[in-house]
Every structure is written in structure tokens, then in C-alpha cells.
């Protein structure tokens, strides 16, 4: 508006000028992108070129190389079992995921109540996840925002109709505002979910955080009418930060957690919903090792860690690139007990990244943005085809490593190995493990 | 427990005309008479509880509250009047309600014989009391009710198949006590796996109840199995200063009670531990900031009490207008 010829080489001049023009609205991505854009690492406050580059430049997890050994005693075991040379088709991808049987070491990550994640695409994704026989997580704030008889039930029903007997499961998150709406109570006794519950395929996930905005609650952009409705119900904080044209910012509270609060909330879940599986989702916090240990000790069937690369429908830019531990660092800090389920998410879409996460200790990996993009490409079969490609890569890679089950992968399959990280010879943040 | 019965209620008209319901109501009437007489004699004053409020007891084991639209605000039908009992102590240090409650229990509890969506409880609270104090009140109340009904309507009870001798130990004042930990161990010995972190499950409770010859208290439930208002034992973190009173003969739990948390910061923290949003409880927390009286109290399920007295199989048989979980009824 009043731009002069003043310049500041080496200083983020453009960023400052944008803030001078738009004020607090500039803290967020452009409001016009809400509902159509999916955000995550690379969409932050850095220079535009970095955002573009982030899509292709590997992060710490991608930087690890998968290193097949020459000598493969497990392949010999498989050869003896089969009476012929094993191939990649002999890799058995079926596994247990948080108390459910799953056809693949995958699950459909939570989409929250943002516009991108709570419409028809979410229902299409649910139907395909059911067909695939992988667990599905339904995100927070669906009931207080959209009502109970809404997309939440539509997703549960779409999944249930498509699911084969005995595999998969539906996990529903509850956060602070959801607790006001008694989401878990509603579902637990609803005839619509009873078949899932009675067959041991219903779970509840305590949502403690997410990778794209660690320490914050859910955020969406709402129009004037919805803002008025939510304000009247006293459900959420509504802010004006998005400016005159950008709608209102709706903030859920992040919730307050201590070790004892996590332990007791999990006990409450197990006490009150004995037939449901108990999951917990953490953001990539610096105390993730202690947090996951607490959750498992309190009886969680699965612990999910969403790395800082995780996606979202809306978040402040500064969080996207600069807040939370990268997934590789998280996995390095987690000491998973034998038999426990550790689920990892954050930019998962192909087999290489998934196998690296599995080798670092994850039991299964979650598809979030990838799943939404896939159903956007083809609502009928997009996710199934994406998963077909991913599963083939998993088989090829796991077989190449001389293994035949995802659970057999270990840090020895990665280079640099954990010991190298300890010695400080590499920046790969893979910490010590038991 | 051996009466022939239909497993679910007949049409309401038929149910209301049945001699069995008439007998049960005669017993209930005498039980209520004796309750009021006993509690008033102990210095308690009867208040009438509210029916709706911005918040109610958070419930548990899949039970949920019903929402009502209160001038545009989401209000709840009371699942328990516990918070109002605590609030009332400043003016009424010894109080009781005969409180109607609505809990939308999960449908699978329809067959336990021990769950109704609408029920009443004899709700007692006493300022400055310990667990021991209110256990004595609960035991005294039960003994007095039993004494009274066997005096007032013995023929009704006999016609229902009850034998006076089944209440001998109770009338002699015999009540036993064990801890939750001991109950879990006893169940393990009886071949029933019971989580040490959780509420005693329905089947476990039936097993313990069948195995007993007199009513017994189970003390010290683990935190995580009960609401935020049950006081945590300061000397034993993770253990609550609470109790259940379980009847003998397979009739199960009659009473739940505890010492209460009265400290504001502790209440807020305990709310978070039970997954609750403290903002929902604003009115109650405001009173807690001003200072709640330390107290102890309990709720005795009225229909469960009448079922125990009459020996009938299911709570719907002792309720004039029964609503079984998951069953649409008038």
C-alpha cells in the first residue's frame, strides 16, 4: 500500500511486509485454502521455495537407507518352511494393530472436523478402509460440530457395511469438547455400532495431540452462521484473527495432561468401556518416551505418535515447520515393550517410508493426507489402489531385507544404524533402545 | 430367586394389575416409611433433589445422561444428585433425598436384572463424616428397613417366597468388610478374572454376592473406577476412601458411597483425570472455590433394595413403570 524502496537483504522482508498488510491473519495459511488445502511440514513460515522443496526433499526418516544384508537366516527358515525359494509374494503383511486383526500394517488416520476431513471424502475413505480390512480412526470434534447423527455415524456405517468379518476395527477419538458431548458413551451403547463393539472391533482413542500442531487443540475456519451457533453452545473459543474476509477461527482446547491424568483417563476408559479397545494419540513431544511408557503401563492397546511432519486441515504456519519432534526422533525415544502396539503417522504414502518407520519400532503406519488425496482422485477405489501399490512395495522391501513379516524388521535394517547416531557421527536422531 | 417370571415386562396395563407388583409396592412403601423414620431419627433432613441441571454425575460403564433443551442451553436429566448433595451441606449438614435418576444404560444391561433406565435412590450425605460413619448409617438403615418390613408386611414377603431366616444375620447386625484388592483375589480364587484397576464387573459382583451369607462392604476401589468426587486416600495414592455395600444371596450391590473430595484444586485435577471438562461444572466449582464441606455419603438403590427384600428376580418387577435399558417403553 505505502511500499517504499526500502529493502532488507538477508532478512525475511516479504514475511514482514505480508504481516504488515494482513496482521494476525498472516499467522495462518490463506483462508481461501481452507477446506481444499491439506497442510503439514513444508507449509510453514519459511521462504516459498522451501515449501515447494519440502515435498521432495527427504526428512530425517526418509534419509535413512534400507540396507539388506547378504546373509539371511530368516530366508533360509522360510525356504525350509516352503520347500522352495521364497519370493516377495511370501511376505505376510497381516498383523495385529492395537488389538484388531489387520490385513496390512496400516490404518486410516484420524481426520478431524475440518471441512477437508469431515465430508464425503471421509465417508469414501471409510468404505475403502473397511474393504481393505485395516483399522480406521475417526477424529475429534465431529459430534460437537456436526452432531452425532452426522458424518461420524455415516463413516462408521460405511466402514461396517464394507468390512469383512474378523478384520479391521473403528476407533473414535474423544477430546475435551467431545467429552462434553459424551461421544464415547453415545457410541458404546448405539445399536449402529453394536456389531463392531460385540465383535471386538470398536475402539476409543484418547486424543492428546497431533503432529501438525503440537500443544494446540483442533482448529477450523467457520463462517458467521456456524460461529454464532458454536458460540451459543459455548463449545469453542472463536477468534477474529483471520481478518474481515477470512471467516472466524474456531479453537478447541488442547486439554491438560500430566502423567497421572493420562494414567487415570486410560483406566477410566477401560473401566467404562470394557469391550472397546483403548488407544492414545500423542503429538511429537519432547517427553514422548515417558508419555508412551505411561500409556502402555496403564493398559493402552495402542499408542499412536504423530510426527511433526503430520498433516492437518488447518494450523498456524509457525507450527508446521518449527514445532515438535520429527517422527524419526520420536521413534528413537520410544521404548516399545514386547507385544505392545506402536502406531506412527506423518507423511506416510509409500512403502519405503513405512518400512523405515516399522524398522524403527512402529507396528503399523497411518495414512492421513495420502488417503484423502487418494479418495479425492477416485472416491470409489483410489485408496484401495494407493494401498495396493504401497503393499507391493512393503512386500518387495521386507523380502529384500530377508524378512517375511513386518514385525521382524529392526534397526539393523537401517543405515546409519542406531549406534552411529549415539557416536555423533550422523545427524540422524535415532536414540538408544532397549 | 426361584420365581417363575417373564424375562421382560408385559404391557404396562397388565404389569400394573399384577398381584406381584402390588406386593412389591406394599414392600416399597414400608421400606420408604422405615427409611424416612430412621434417617430423620438420626438427625437427617429430607430435601427434594433437582431434576435437571447444566451438569450431572458423569456416569460410568457406558451409561449416559439425557440432554434436555433448557431455554436454549444443553441441560442434563440427573443421573445422580451427588453434586447437589455436596452443595447443600453448607445449609443442611445432614441431608437425604429420595432421588429419581435417569441413566441411559447400555442395552446389554437389560438382562442383568439389576438395571433400569429410570430408578430412585436413597441419597444420604453427612458433613464432617468419615467412611466409617456413613457405613454405620448405611448398615443401620438397611437393618431398620429389614426389621420394619418383616414387622409390617410379613405375609406379603412370605407369599413372595421370602423366608425370615434369610435375614437373620443381617438383623443381628452382621456386616462384613473386605477391600477391593481382597475381593479381586477372592474372585481369582473362584476362577473369575477381575481387573484390579476397574469397577467389579456384573458377573463378579453376582459371584461374590452368591458366595456371601450376610451383606458386606467392599472398600478402597482404585482411582479410575469411580467419579472425581470420591476422595483419594492421602496416605495411599490411587486408592479411594469409598465403598460399596453388596447384599448376600446374589442380589448384588445395594449401595455406593464414599468420603468426598472437597478441595477445589483436587476436584479440578480429578475431573481431568476422569476425562471431564471442568468448564462444564462451573457452578459447582464456584461453590468449591468458596469452600465445600468435607463430607461422606452414599446412595442406596431403592429398587435394588426392594428386589432384595422381596426376592424377585429383576428390577422391572419392583418398578411400577419399568424402563429396561435399550427397550422402548411408556
Automatic annotation (TrEMBL), chain A:
<dbReference type="Pfam" id="PF01645">
    <property type="entry name" value="Glu_synthase"/>
</dbReference>
<dbReference type="InterPro" id="IPR013785">
    <property type="entry name" value="Aldolase_TIM"/>
</dbReference>
<protein>
    <submittedName>
        <fullName>Glutamate synthase</fullName>
    </submittedName>
</protein>
<dbReference type="InterPro" id="IPR002932">
    <property type="entry name" value="Glu_synthdom"/>
</dbReference>
<comment type="similarity">
    <text>Belongs to the glutamate synthase family.</text>
</comment>
<dbReference type="GO" id="GO:0015930">
    <property type="term" value="F:glutamate synthase activity"/>
</dbReference>
<feature type="domain" description="Glutamate synthase">
    <location>
        <begin position="204"/>
        <end position="375"/>
    </location>
</feature>
<dbReference type="GO" id="GO:0006537">
    <property type="term" value="P:glutamate biosynthetic process"/>
</dbReference>
From TrEMBL, chain B:
<dbReference type="InterPro" id="IPR004364">
    <property type="entry name" value="Aa-tRNA-synt_II"/>
</dbReference>
<keyword id="KW-0648">Protein biosynthesis</keyword>
<keyword id="KW-0030">Aminoacyl-tRNA synthetase</keyword>
<dbReference type="InterPro" id="IPR006195">
    <property type="entry name" value="aa-tRNA-synth_II"/>
</dbReference>
<dbReference type="Pfam" id="PF00152">
    <property type="entry name" value="tRNA-synt_2"/>
</dbReference>
<dbReference type="InterPro" id="IPR045864">
    <property type="entry name" value="aa-tRNA-synth_II/BPL/LPL"/>
</dbReference>
<feature type="domain" description="Aminoacyl-transfer RNA synthetases class-II family profile">
    <location>
        <begin position="34"/>
        <end position="330"/>
    </location>
</feature>
<dbReference type="GO" id="GO:0004816">
    <property type="term" value="F:asparagine-tRNA ligase activity"/>
</dbReference>
<dbReference type="GO" id="GO:0005524">
    <property type="term" value="F:ATP binding"/>
</dbReference>
<keyword id="KW-0067">ATP-binding</keyword>
<keyword id="KW-0436">Ligase</keyword>
<protein>
    <submittedName>
        <fullName>Asparagine ligase</fullName>
    </submittedName>
</protein>
<dbReference type="GO" id="GO:0006421">
    <property type="term" value="P:asparaginyl-tRNA aminoacylation"/>
</dbReference>
<keyword id="KW-0547">Nucleotide-binding</keyword>
Amino acid at each position: 500500500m505505502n511500499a517504499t524502496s526500502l529493502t532488507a537483504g538477508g532478512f525475511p522482508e516479504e514475511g514482514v511486509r505480508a504481516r504488515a498488510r494482513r496482521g494476525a491473519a498472516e499467522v495462518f495459511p490463506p483462508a481461501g485454502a481452507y477446506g481444499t488445502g491439506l497442510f503439514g511440514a513444508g507449509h510453514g513460515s519459511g521462504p516459498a521455495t522451501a515449501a515447494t522443496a519440502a515435498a521432495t526433499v527427504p526428512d530425517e526418516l526418509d534419509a535413512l537407507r534400507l540396507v539388506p544384508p547378504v546373509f539371511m537366516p530368516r530366508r533360509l527358515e522360510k525356504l525350509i518352511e516352503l520347500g522352495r525359494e521364497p519370493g516377495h509374494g511370501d511376505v505376510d503383511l497381516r498383523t495385529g494393530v492395537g488389538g484388531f486383526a489387520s490385513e496390512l500394517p496400516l490404518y486410516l488416520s484420524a481426520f478431524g472436523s475440518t471441512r477437508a476431513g469431515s465430508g464425503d471424502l471421509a465417508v469414501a475413505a471409510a468404505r475403502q478402509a473397511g474393504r481393505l480390512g485395516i483399522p480406521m480412526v475417526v477424529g475429534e470434534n465431529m459430534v460437537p460440530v456436526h452432531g452425532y447423527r452426522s458424518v461420524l455415524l455415516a463413516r462408521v456405517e460405511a466402514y461396517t457395511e464394507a468390512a469383512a468379518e474378523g478384520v479391521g476395527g473403528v476407533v473414535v477419538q474423544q477430546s475435551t469438547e467431545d467429552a462434553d458431548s459424551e461421544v464415547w458413551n453415545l457410541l458404546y451403547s448405539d445399536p449402529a455400532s453394536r456389531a463392531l463393539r460385540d465383535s471386538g472391533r470398536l475402539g476409543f482413542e484418547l486424543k492428546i495431540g497431533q503432529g501438525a500442531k503440537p500443544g494446540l487443540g483442533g482448529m477450523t475456519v467457520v463462517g458467521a452462521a456456524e460461529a454464532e451457533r458454536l458460540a451459543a453452545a459455548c463449545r469453542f473459543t472463536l477468534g477474529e484473527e483471520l481478518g474481515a474476509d477470512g471467516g472466524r477461527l474456531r479453537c478447541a482446547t488442547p486439554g491438560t495432561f500430566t502423567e497421572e491424568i493420562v494414567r487415570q483417563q486410560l483406566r477410566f476408559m477401560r473401566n467404562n468401556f470394557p469391550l472397546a479397545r483403548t488407544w492414545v494419540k500423542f503429538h511429537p513431544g519432547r517427553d514422548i518416551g515417558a508419555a508412551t511408557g505411561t500409556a502402555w503401563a496403564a493398559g493402552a492397546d495402542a499408542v499412536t505418535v504423530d510426527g511433526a511432519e503430520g498433516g492437518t486441515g488447518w494450523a498456524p504456519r509457525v507450527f508446521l515447520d518449527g514445532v515438535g519432534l520429527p517422527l524419526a526422533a520420536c521413534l528413537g525415544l520410544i521404548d516399545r515393550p514386547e507385544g505392545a502396539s506402536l502406531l506412527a503417522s506423518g507423511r506416510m504414502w509409500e512403502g519405503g517410508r513405512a518400512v523405515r518407520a516399522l524398522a524403527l519400532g512402529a507396528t503399523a503406519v497411518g495414512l492421513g493426507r495420502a488417503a484423502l488425496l487418494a479418495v479425492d482422485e477416485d472416491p470409489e477405489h483410489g485408496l484401495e489402489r494407493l494401498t495396493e501399490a504401497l503393499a507391493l512395495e512393503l512386500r518387495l522391501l521386507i523380502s529384500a531385507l530377508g524378512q517375511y513379516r513386518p514385525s521382524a524388521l529392526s534397526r539393523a535394517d537401517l543405515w546409519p544404524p542406531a549406534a552411529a547416531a549415539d557416536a555423533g557421527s550422523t545427524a540422524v536422531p535415532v536414540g538408544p533402545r532397549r | 430367586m426361584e420365581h417363575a417370571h417373564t424375562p421382560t415386562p408385559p404391557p404396562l396395563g397388565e404389569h400394573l394389575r399384577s398381584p406381584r407388583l402390588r406386593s412389591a409396592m406394599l414392600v416399597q412403601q414400608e421400606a420408604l416409611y422405615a427409611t424416612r423414620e430412621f434417617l430423620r431419627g438420626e438427625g437427617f433432613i429430607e430435601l427434594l433433589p433437582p431434576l435437571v441441571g447444566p451438569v450431572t454425575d458423569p456416569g460410568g460403564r457406558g451409561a449416559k445422561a439425557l440432554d434436555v433443551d433448557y431455554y436454549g442451553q444443553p441441560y442434563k436429566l440427573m443421573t445422580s444428585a451427588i453434586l447437589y448433595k455436596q452443595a447443600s451441606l453448607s445449609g443442611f449438614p445432614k441431608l437425604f433425598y429420595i432421588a429419581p435418576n435417569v441413566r441411559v444404560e447400555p442395552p446389554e444391561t437389560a438382562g442383568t436384572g439389576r438395571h433400569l433406565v429410570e430408578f430412585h435412590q436413597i441419597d444420604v450425605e453427612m458433613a464432617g463424616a468419615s467412611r466409617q460413619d456413613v457405613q454405620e448409617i448405611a448398615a443401620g438403615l438397611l437393618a431398620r428397613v429389614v426389621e420394619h418390613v418383616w414387622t409390617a408386611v410379613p405375609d406379603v414377603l412370605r407369599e413372595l417366597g421370602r423366608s425370615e431366616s434369610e435375614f437373620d444375620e443381617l438383623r443381628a447386625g452382621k456386616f462384613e468388610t473386605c477391600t477391593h484388592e481382597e475381593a479381586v483375589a477372592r474372585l481369582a480364587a473362584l476362577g473369575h478374572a477381575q481387573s484390579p484397576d476397574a469397577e467389579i464387573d456384573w458377573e463378579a459382583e453376582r459371584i461374590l454376592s452368591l458366595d456371601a451369607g450376610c451383606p458386606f462392604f467392599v472398600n478402597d476401589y482404585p482411582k479410575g473406577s469411580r467419579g472425581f468426587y470420591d476422595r483419594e486416600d492421602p496416605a495411599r495414592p490411587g486408592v479411594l476412601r469409598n465403598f460399596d455395600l453388596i447384599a448376600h444371596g446374589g442380589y448384588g450391590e445395594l449401595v455406593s458411597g464414599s468420603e468426598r473430595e472437597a478441595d477445589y484444586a483436587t476436584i479440578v485435577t480429578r475431573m481431568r483425570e476422569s476425562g471431564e471438562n471442568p468448564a462444564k461444572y462451573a457452578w459447582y466449582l464456584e461453590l468449591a472455590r468458596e469452600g465445600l464441606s468435607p463430607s461422606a455419603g452414599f446412595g442406596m438403590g431403592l429398587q435394588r433394595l426392594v428386589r432384595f427384600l422381596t426376592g424377585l428376580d429383576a428390577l422391572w418387577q419392583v418398578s411400577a413403570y419399568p424402563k429396561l435399558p435399550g427397550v422402548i417403553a411408556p
